[in-house]
Structures are given as C-alpha cells and as structure tokens.
Design brief:
Low-confidence stretches of chain B: none
CATH superfamily of the largest domain in chain A: Butyryl-CoA Dehydrogenase, subunit A, domain 3
Shape of chain B: globular
Number of helices of chain B: 7
CATH superfamily of chain B: HUPs
Low-confidence stretches of chain A: 75-87
CATH architecture of the largest domain in chain A: Up-down Bundle
Strand content of chain A: 5-15%
Helix content of chain B: 25-40%
Oligomer: heterodimer
Mean pLDDT of chain B: 93
Distance between the termini of chain B: 62 Å
Number of domains of chain A: 3
Number of strands of chain B: 14
Bound molecules: flavin-adenine dinucleotide
Largest sheet of chain B: 10 strands, mixed
CATH topology of the largest domain in chain A: Butyryl-CoA Dehydrogenase, subunit A, domain 3
Helix content of chain A: 40-55%
Order of helices and strands of chain A: HHHHHHHHEEEEEEEHEEHHHH
Number of domains of chain B: 1
Mean pLDDT of chain A: 92
Chain lengths: 424, 269
C-alpha cells in the first residue's frame, strides 16, 4: 500500500519551511486585506522548480502524443486523453512520486490558505488543461507553458448567474459566427476564480448557428484579461476563501478571430466536445479537493490538540473531558479516511487506473463533509477564541464550506454516485 | 576540483530542549542539518555553479543510519555524493570527530574542506581547527565571503572583524569554515561569476526534482573501523541541567520605587 516515503516526507518538511517563512507572514494581508496571492504563489512555484517540472512533463507527454499521431494514431494534443489511449502503463514508482509531488504542495498550502490553493489550481490546472485537451499546437505553445509556470494567471469560466449545477443545460452565453473566421461572444459569467486578475480566460459558451439552445454545441474560447468588449468585476465579497479573488466576467459583442476558439474548429457531432473536456475537468477538480481537505483537517486537528492540552478550565486541561476527546477522536477518524482515500487515488492512478467519476465523486463528497465537520468542531474546541481570527480555526471553518459547493455541490456528487450504483 | 563538506545532524533549534536525568532527552526530537553546515553546502553549490571548476561536492556526516535523511537533504540541494560514517554522534567529542574527518579527507583528497563554523548543539567551534592541525593544512575560519581563483589554486576568504572585513588568501587544499554571512546574495564569487550575479539570501530550498533525484545519488557507508581510526573519548559529559528559570518581571510605579527595589531587593546599588 502506498504511504509517504522518506523523500516525500523530506519534501513536505521543505514545503512547510517555505510556507512558514514566506506565506504565513503575508497571510493577514491576503486573507483579511484583499492583497492578491499571485506574487507569493509565483515564488512558491519558482523556489521548488515546480513550474519548470510541469512544463517538462507536459512537453514529454505532448511529444509522445505527436509521435503516436505521426505513427497513425488519433493524436489530439498532448493531453491526458491521449495518455489514456496509450497501451503502455506508466512506471508505477515514478508515477507514485508524481502523484505525491502534486498532492504535497496542495496539502501544505491548504494548512494556511485554501483560497491560495484554489487560485493556484485554477490558474495552473483547469485553465491550461482546457487548452491542452483540445487546443492547436500554436495555442498550446502560446499559453500552456506560461500558465504552468504561473507567468500568466488563468481563469476558467463556465458558471453563470442562471446556470450553476446545471452548467450546460441552462447556459446562456453564446458565440455567433461572424463571417468565416470570426465569432461574436456574449454572456455573463460569475463566481470566476482569478477573474479579476487573470491574463488568460477560458470562456465556455454555446455555439449559436440558429439552432434551438438545447441542440447547440459547447465551445470554449481563449480570451485575454484586457480586451474590448470584456468587462470584469472587482473581487466579490465572500464568506471565506479570501486568498482567492473571485469575480464576474461580462462579454458584450466581443469579436474574436477563430484563432481564439480552442481547437480552431467545431467538432461536429459526437467526436467529443468541450462538454467532455469540462466533465473531465470536474473529475480532476475532485481529486484536488482530497488533498485540500487533508491539509485543512490536519491543521485543524493539530491546533485543536495543542489547545486541548493547554487550555485549563475547572482546574484541568479541557482535553481531559470526554466531550472534547470525542471531537478529537472524530477528527482523527476523518483524517485517516481522507488520507487513505488520497493514497488510494495516488496509487491507482500510478497503476494506470485513475478513479472513475463515481469514485472521484464519492471521495470529494466525503472529504468536503469531513473537512467541514472537523473545522467547525475545531472552532468549538477553541470556544470564544475559536471565533476570533487570531486563532486561525475560524478561517479554516469558513474556507471548508466551499469544498461542499464548488467542483460540483454535495448534492450533485450524491446524485452522480447514486446514478452510477443504480444504472451502471 | 573536489569539495568535501561536513554536515552534522542537530536537534531542531526551534524546539524546546528537555532534560531527562543526566542527558538531553532526544526522543521525539525533530532533527535538521546544522544550519552552519547547510550554509557550507550552499557555499559549495555556489562555487560549483559559478566557476565550472568544481567536479564534485561530497557531503560527509557521522552518525547512525537515521542521519541518512539529513544527508539526503544535502544531496537534494544539489551535492553529488554522500558519505556516512556510522557512529554514535551523541558520544563523539571534537577530537574523535576530527580524527574521523581527517581519515575521510585522506581517502577522498579533496581540494577544499568546507565546514560550518560550529554545530549549534554543542557550540564547540573546534573541529575544523583540529582537522587542519592534524592534516597540517592552511585554515581560514568564519568565512563571510569566498572568492575562488580562476585556476582553483587558492581561495580568498573574507571574515568579519571589528569595523570591517579582513581578507586572507589561502592556497588550496585548505580547511575553511563558514559563518552566517556566506549565504548573503553576493557572498560567493568565482572567476566565472557574472558581474551582477545575486543569489536568493539563505541556503536554497531543494527543488522537487532535486529531492527526487537525491534518492538515486550514491551514499558510501563506512565504519570507523574501516577508516582505521582509534577513538578515545577526551571529553565526558558529567551532568546536564536546564538553566534556572527567571522569575517574572514587575512594573514599578515611580523612579523612587525603582531605586528602592534596586537597593533593597536586587541589591545592585
Ligand atoms: C469560491 C467559488 C469559486 C468558484 N470558482 C469558479 C470558477 O473558477 N469557474 C466557474 O465556472 N465556476 C466557479 N464557481 C461556481 C461553482 O462551480 C458553482 O457555484 C457550483 O457549481 C454550484 O452552482 P450554483 O452556485 O449555481 O448553485 P445551484 O446549482 O443553484 O445550487 C443551489 C442548491 O441546489 C442544489 N441543487 C442543484 N441542482 C440539484 C439537483 N439536480 N439535485 C439536488 N440538488 C440540486 C445544489 O446542490 C445547491 O444546494 C465557484 C464558486 C465558488 C463559491
């Protein structure tokens, strides 16, 4: 069974040292004063050479896919999709390291700011993945490396005021062809992570060629942060996740050349579409939530244990009371479960069998709820201090709530799990 | 050119020290590389990167198998090879340590022996000087700056003194120890350094790639017997005690009260 190796633990210590030295001193500015998180995130990425490593991995994948395509396969870009088609299974030990190296920075950063992790994950995860999955080589060259290294900040926009869980069905944003090689975009997007600051925005909308809305194809465009016809709101005020600026994006008669259409062509009929890519994105988001939840649970538990040992009431440390012990024990159960789920995901992915959508949904549902419960109970262990920002557990509790909402709400995970059980 | 760097494992200086009986209680302690040794590794890496004259950086540590972890973290920073001399680092005094390092030096014949100025656990600041004496090599301690000659025949060592810096040029091979300032942005120079070359202050973090590559780097394990070193303990610890805790301070209302207390309670006036 997979567990952290000595080098993973060593990496973890390094990451923690960096986070303590570089992130923690800025946490108040980022969490309470609206300072954008990007400079610290860039430093994080650069210090550990993560961006360059990701670019290296991406280029290797792309080269393999192109070689396969040249040999007569059906290569489309260098994405995970192309990888999945490969007969060769990845070398498990290198792949285990790769899984651990993806998870550990998320875990360590989540201990202090789930918001920063979200800003990071959208910028170097969702956004480049959308371009890798279907973009032309020229589009990939222009955007992917810069996004992976955080030289450019990315945003991924699907949600609209009227379409959230029903992301495709209720989507109103449209792209209308304008001549042979241009499109006119219209639509409002909301809750867009990094929206206010992004350099690159993936704008997902429906292609309107006059057909009724339910038959329209889903397409996505690569927009720049500053363009005529594009407006962005300031960061919205939120319950938590303050380390991640979230905003609205408005496109009004925004005219773009076809070179901004991801893939530069509309795949007619079921050759796969931006809809499938978006679905894959949801699955990827879900495994990221496991690592985030683990970091938050570990931190909440650590803080609670220390407080339970040292806070004395009625002449005894509160940790000697069974009601407090129950909370601490439940935190440990949650921690073990989430860690095991993460380990299993890393291990099965390394053996070429990543979790399917139902398994990913089950993991996300459990981890989000566990994180919420643990972090709220941590506030309770701290009593009045828990309600005060200084003790940090209130931030964990506010931040944990979002795990049950984005990347598919708890309710949507439930229905996906149940459907796969009932009608598999 | 080959650089031999020594690295000792020490209890994390940020933890509270617990005394148990006549010894420091090391159970449950987190261990780290002695900070000054980490600076020595950083200095060696900077010499290698900017000069192009350094072929290999070898890191030497003495201790139990557990110390492999700290050795790996030096390799993860970028050092090329490790040597672990198996021994009980708790009971080694400076003389024994120096004998072991001398023996390894003779096996490896490096061009530069780079060491931290002292280990932050015992704060002895003796080993480098003893080694240099035993090997009859030039020594330059407390380097805050280093500049390597183009032909790697000598190194200029800058050390902080009252009111400024003092520079000494020592021929290689020699023994050099480093002080805190060696990790300042422009503290290490070689003929290959660019004019405005600046490093981030402090020892580097190992990159993700570095950490994974470190797993594959070679660590030679040698016993004290293999080295043919006779160990006799010169320094024995007879007891360990925590310093008496200081009583809490008080606030005085007036100067008169202060003078009165200084006279009658503290009896310093
Ligand atoms: C901090 C934050 C960052 C975000 N970042 C992004 C981003 O970068 N890009 C982006 O595109 N979006 C982003 N989102 C949007 C997010 O994906 C949506 O909020 C989420 O999908 C839920 O949609 P909704 O808010 O419209 O809620 P709704 O879909 O309106 O849901 C309201 C309630 O109804 C329930 N519900 C809905 N449908 C069903 C059903 N069929 N059965 C049972 N219950 C149902 C939901 O579970 C929920 O409890 C972000 C959201 C937040 C809070």
């Amino acid at each position: 069974m997979f567990k952290w190796s000595d080098s993973h633990k060593q990496l973890r210590m390094m990451l923690r040292k960096f986070v303590d030295a570089e992130v923690v001193p800025q946490i108040d500015a980022i969490e309470h004063e609206g300072a954008p998180p990007y400079d610290v995130l860039r430093k994080f990425w650069k210090t550990f050479g993560i961006g360059d490593m990701l670019v290296g991995e991406y280029k290797a994948r792309r080269k393999k896919a192109e070689a396969r395509a040249a040999a007569g396969g059906s290569g489309s870009g260098g994405g995970e999709a192309a990888d999945a088609g490969s007969k060769k299974k990845p070398d498990p030990s290198a792949a285990l390291d790769q899984g651990a190296m993806r998870a550990l920075p998320i875990i360590e950063l989540s201990r202090h700011s789930a918001g920063m992790v979200t800003a990071l994950g959208v910028s170097m995860g969702l956004t480049p993945n959308a371009i890798i999955a279907r973009g032309t080589p020229a589009q990939q060259d222009a955007y992917v490396p810069a996004l992976l290294t955080l030289d450019k900040i990315g945003a991924w926009a699907i949600t609209e005021p009227g379409s959230g869980s029903d992301a495709f069905g209720a989507m109103r944003a449209t792209a209308k062809p304008d001549g042979d090689d241009h499109f006119i975009l219209n639509g409002n997007k909301t809750f867009i992570t990094n929206g206010p600051y992004a350099d690159v925005i993936i704008f997902i909308c429906k292609l309107d060629r006059g057909e009724p809305p339910e038959r329209r194809k889903i397409v996505s465009f690569i927009l720049d942060g500053e363009m005529e016809g594009l407006e962005r709101s300031k960061p919205l005020r939120k319950m938590g996740l303050h380390g991640s600026p979230t905003g609205e994006i408005f496109a009004s008669d925004l005219r773009v050349p076809i070179s901004r259409l991801v893939g530069e062509r509309v795949d007619d009929e079921d050759a796969g579409s931006a809809r499938d890519d978006a679905k894959k994105t949801f699955t990827a988001e879900r495994s990221g939530v496991l690592a985030m939840a683990l970091g938050m649970i570990e931190r909440a538990q650590e803080l609670s244990l220390e407080y339970a040992r040292t806070r004395v009431q009625f002449g005894k440390p509160i940790g000697e009371r069974q009601l407090i012990q129950l909370k601490l024990a439940k935190m440990e159960v949650a921690r073990q479960n989430v860690e095991n789920m993460l380990f299993k995901t890393i291990e099965s992915t390394a053996h070429g069998e990543p979790p399917d959508i139902a398994a990913a949904s089950a993991g996300k549902l459990y981890a989000a709820q566990a994180a919420m419960e643990v972090c709220l109970e941590a506030v309770q262990v701290f009593g009045g201090n828990g309600y005060m920002a200084e003790y940090r557990v209130e931030q964990l509790a506010r931040d944990a709530k979002v795990l049950q909402i984005y990347g598919g709400t708890d309710e949507i995970q439930v229905s996906q799990i149940a459907r796969s059980l009932l009608w598999r | 050119m080959k650089i031999l760097v020594t690295a000792k494992r020490v209890p994390d200086p940020e933890q509270k020290v617990k005394v148990q009986g006549d010894a420091i209680d090391l159970s449950g302690m987190n261990f780290v590389v002695n900070p000054f040794d980490e600076y020595a590794v950083e200095a060696a890496l900077r010499l290698k990167e900017s000069s192009g004259a350094v072929d290999e950086i070898v890191v030497l540590t003495i201790g139990s198998k557990d110390v492999t972890q700290q050795l790996r973290s030096c390799l993860a920073m970028g050092a090329d090879r490790g040597i672990l001399v198996e021994g009980d680092d708790d009971s080694l005094d400076s003389e024994q340590t120096a004998r072991i390092i001398k023996a390894v030096y003779e096996r490896e014949s490096p061009d530069l022996l780079l060491m931290g100025k002292q280990a932050v656990d015992g704060d002895n600041n003796q080993v480098a000087q003893l080694v240099a004496g035993k090997l009859d090599l030039p020594q330059a301690c407390f380097a805050g700056q280093l500049e390597l000659e183009g032909d790697a025949s000598a190194i200029t060592v800058g050390r902080e003194i009252d009111g400024g810096m003092e520079f000494k040029k020592v021929p290689l091979p020699s023994v050099v120890t480093v002080d805190l300032r060696i990790v300042m942005p422009t503290a290490v120079k070689t003929a290959g350094s660019k004019d405005n070359q600046e490093y981030a202050e402090g020892p580097r973090y190992a990159s993700l790639k570095g950490i994974m590559q470190a797993k594959k780097k070679k660590i030679d394990e040698i016993s004290v017997g293999d080295l043919g070193v006779e160990l006799e303990q010169w320094v024995k610890t007879t007891s360990v005690e925590t310093p008496p805790s200081r009583s809490a301070g008080i606030k005085v209302e007036s100067v008169d009260e202060l003078v009165d207390k200084l006279q009658n309670e503290a009896k310093v006036l």
